[in-house]
Fold:
Amino acid sequence: MSGVTRDLEALPFSEQVFALVSTIPTGRALSYGDVAALLGSRASRAVGRVMRDSGADLPWWRVVSSTGSLPAELEERARLHYKREQTPMRANGTVDLAAARWRP
Structure:
């Protein structure tokens, strides 16, 4: 567990997800699995559920699938954020996690 996540251990899982996602820097991204792993869990689907239910207060576009994609209904809105933040992208329109992955 990194220093960023060590301070989150006492919080409920959903609050840990919120706290971690809110620290992802501009132009960077993590997969659902990355978020879970940083929190000492393998529950990537639980991260997805927390993100789905979180509302718009988080930089939701910075958490993507392991292929760099988001649900189809979010792609167009996310693309605006990616362009503004200069997030590394692949030619197919997905986030290039090899280049964009944040390593706290």
Observations:
- The two ends are 10 Å apart (CA to CA).
- The mean pLDDT is 90.
- Strands lie at 30-31, 63-64.
